[in-house]
Fold these 4 entries.
Entry 1:
Amino acid sequence: MERVGIAAAVRTPIGKFLGALGSLSAVELGAIAVRAALDRAGVGAGDVEEVIFGQARQLGSGPNPARQVALAADCPESSVALTVNKACGSSLKAIDLARAALLLDGRAVVVAGGMESMTNIPFLLPQMRQGYRLGHAEALDGNYQDGFTCGILKEPMGMTAEYLADDYGIPRQEQDEYAVRSHARAEAAQKAGRFADEIEAVEVAGKRGAVTTVATDEHVRAGVTLEALAKLPPVFRPQGGTVHAGNSSGITDGAAALVLMTEGEFARRGLRPLAWLGASASAGVSPRVMGIGPVPAIRKLLARTGRTLGDFDLVELNEAFAAQMLACDRELELGFERVNVNGGAIALGHPIGATGARIVVTLLHELRRRGGKRGLAALHERGDGNGVGVGAGVGGERMGACGGGFGHGHGFRE
């Protein structure tokens, strides 16, 4: 079967909740990422045949937001679009579906990615349809209704991290130490300019017409210490809990996009890919411990490809919670010296529908910077309350001469 490669990978800065990107919708952020990715790939928007975009919090965004992104990015009306909602794994699944579109549907150019504006998710008045008779009406936060609360367990998502901490004996101190490392790595990477190549600056119009350029991730905090984190109260289990705001991922806004083509299309255009996609794998787990999902997914990927974790130069594993990262490490012995080397979602933030693509974008650029051959990107997700592990491996030599993999376990192949 013909190989599929990534021609360009780009993301917007990640904005804080109610922060610098808050005036932009998810669709606007997505269109910015798509236009930038096409420009960097040297591919005209008119050549795009399909846009597949993830968005996990679609409330208020209108029908098929991916189609809105495609047209806003000047893709032709003859192109088609698909919006993917697979919770945290939405945009990673979008990349898998893009490969299928290229190989099975005969597309020439497909753009995949994801977007989220958690700032702009509206509140709900669920009884408004029938009307309110008397008294006060409760407004439900769409962020909680469609995301932070598990539809099956009927409890906050963070409780799954508390359960993992219980099951694997992970104390708060260890979680906080992990979080401090994530913050420190992101701070160092930002100061060194290591995110510059992957980020497309965003211009934001102010209330009085002044334009502000946002070119760096807004959620990164300098000088985070164990002492500071020790002062934060547990959020999900007030008595005896270990998970708090400082060792959890941030609520943020952002988008990421990748341009994908077959090997034949690369040759026809005289282009060279950043990386080739290879095998993929998914695995489901109990909603109670969704964060352990990457473990069976990655194991399935390794078994399918005959590789070991040692074959990957870098690993990007989404940091929803420090407890989840440490539980996965207990099982996989990841070796944090090559995991999230520039920090992860605890420091950078977790714009849900964009995160899968974001970690792939970051992985590809860091692999290229280091001259690495193979990388592995993985995350856990919850769709309809199901705990699902997603791992994606994306690998390639500096000039794109090697293969890689992707998935719900994604890996690369030679």
Note: Residues 383-414 have pLDDT under 50 and may be disordered.
Entry 2:
Amino acid sequence: MRAIQVSRYGGPEVLIPVDLPDPQAGEGEVIVRAEAVDTIYLETQIRGGWGEMFGVTPPYVPGGAAAGTVVSTGPGVSASWLGRQVVAGAGTRGSYAELVRAGVDRLVPVPDGLGLREAAGLAHDGVTAMGIIDGVGVKPGDRVLILGAAGGMGTLLVQLAHRLGAQVVGAARGADKLTLVRRLGADAVVDYSGDGWTDAVREALGGMSVDVLLDGVGGDLGSDAFPLVADGGRVSAHGAASGDFAKTDLQSAQARGIDLYGIADVQFEAPEMVQLASRALTEAVQGRIRPVIAREYPLSSAAEAHRAMEARAIPGKALLIP
């Protein structure tokens, strides 16, 4: 099969197309012929040197989710899975490939009416977005600030918070991304690429603080946003797209009664990941959310996809098509 391999830690150039033996399904496993492969920004960071944090060392096949068709089953797996369209996620590894081996307990059937590319676009970000919204308890009337609102997960958070009746302020960089965020349901949008963006958030909210901060960016932007949070508010600091997580004054948060959630709060066990993914697919097929798939690349062009993600060149998601 054709696959992409990370030959060593480094830039996008270390993503090399290779020929590898076809995987064989073991006990409780299936083989999925991938028709769309999910990409997330974290994969660029793992490739760049974070591998040891996630238990991978070069050479390895990157990727943690794909959507496609079950083409073979291993011992202990019902033959009824053959031919079914599924998302292989929830801890699946090595999905930058034509064939993906996955545990049957980690499969999510794709509901009728939802395309495989849309399903792939929800494989990671749908799980995390649903988990974040559940965890912080977004409710009608909440004032919600979303950093990285034009990213793959940010676009889902905007839609979910809007559907729940929150007042949503989406923060991103550049006019095109802000237009997208507004179209997805944000009540106000703010460009955080310049000075004074936090003042613009307050102005958009009529001088009010935010009840919920959903930080998918981290770094200085996340730290600068923290003072905008009201006493008794909730903060999910789940992202490090800037290169590091936001540094939060824990003593101040405790004194102000602010509940803090971090990356550990969106690390789910496989059964919960499958449940969250199934919910995300159901929300999508019923028209309540949609993944924003901005660009599709041939599998062999994975390096180009990583360059685009690192350059923040595209809103929403990029998919790889084997």
Note: The chain has a mean pLDDT of 95.
Entry 3:
Amino acid sequence: MKRKFLFNLIFVGILAISSSFYAQELIDEEKKLEFQTHFFEALKQKAINNYAKAIESLELCMAIDASSKAVEFEFSKNYLELKKYFEAEIFIDKALLKDTNNVHLLKHKVAIYKAQRNFEAAIKIQQKIVETRTEYSDELVLLYLQNRNFEKAASLIVEIEDKALATSKIKGYKQYLENRKKAIEKTTDKPKINTEIVDISTLKKEYANNKEFKILQQILKTELSTESFDLLYSDSKDALELFPTQPFLYLMNGLALNKLVKYNEAIAVLSIGIDFVIDNNELEASYYEQLSIAYEGLDKKNEALKYKQKAEKLRQHN
């Protein structure tokens, strides 16, 4: 009798412990599912540019798991889109404490500094990235150019070429530096031309002589207004050899390609050019507008809508 009582007592104890563990597993599973639901909702809201709503969902995620690196990263992304740079930096720093050398986190921190035109800080982070990931050297060259560290940019280009890692972007940056050097050495005492009152043939003759960017802009704007899209394409393409960091030229080239129904080529050109747009909402909106047109031409409705909304949002803030 005593043995039976002891057996029952042990059985009840085991059952109670098992039930407790099972209940805890259920709670943990429910929390995990709840976390995933809120996290995916945050991603969905960010995808449709509803950044404030995305942050609300991320706050619910944080209430469940306050130490999630993924949540901190998403917080930072959304705050950057809202131009809340202080908050964006706080959250990316929290994520980096957990994963110091994560290249995606580091690249995002570079983006935060670039958005504030803090190129010195961006350069320090990009240098750290390049130490282990040399394929991102072209971004470091661009940062040097944007910060007017032309000698450092030229020196890094030589290093990249010596390692046979030069990309089309690197070749463009090298051409830019060579053209800049020639422009400094060239005398500037040629008579100025009134670009407002002369015809395009006169503008082209003058541009052939002195390669002034202001005259080139007037030529391309005239070709655009007269719907001479073949000329706009060829002239903007040729101009990119001389001015590879001018976002206006990539935009004109991409626009011409869209008009010529070459949508994939337009996307490729526009995706390069937009990297050179700095602190110019109207120009950035024009890029998104052309990207939307290109994706619409390829019948990629979701991408087209995404870029259309980006353009509209930027113009609302102007």
Note: The domain at 200-317 is CATH 1.25.40.10 (Serine Threonine Protein Phosphatase 5, Tetratricopeptide repeat).
Entry 4:
Amino acid sequence: MEKKAVIKTGGKQYLVEPGALLTIEKLDGSETMEEGGSISFDEVLMVLDGDEPKVGTPTVEGASVSATFLGNGRNKKVETLKYKSKSNYQKRYGHKQPHSKVRIEAIK
């Protein structure tokens, strides 16, 4: 059975395994990171290795997940419209959420 882990980053939790490509919330300081650089996620909530899962309280001691930074991007635009009938009022809003892409290399 392949090793898996649950990590927490950007206020969300992800189930990861080595070789997985992830689109996560934009990492702090990622503007200065170079593509192909190494990242370490230390907030590991659970590690699945074989039959026995290791569950942290709240994190697993000494566990970390290493990944390769692949770059930043932005999601598709989400548009909303505020409209009031009979008053000739409408307001459009748009938002593109920034994200980072990473490839999981190893679970330690």
Note: The beta strands are 4-9, 12-16, 21-25, 38-41, 44-49, 52-55, 65-74, 78-84, 89-95, 98-107.
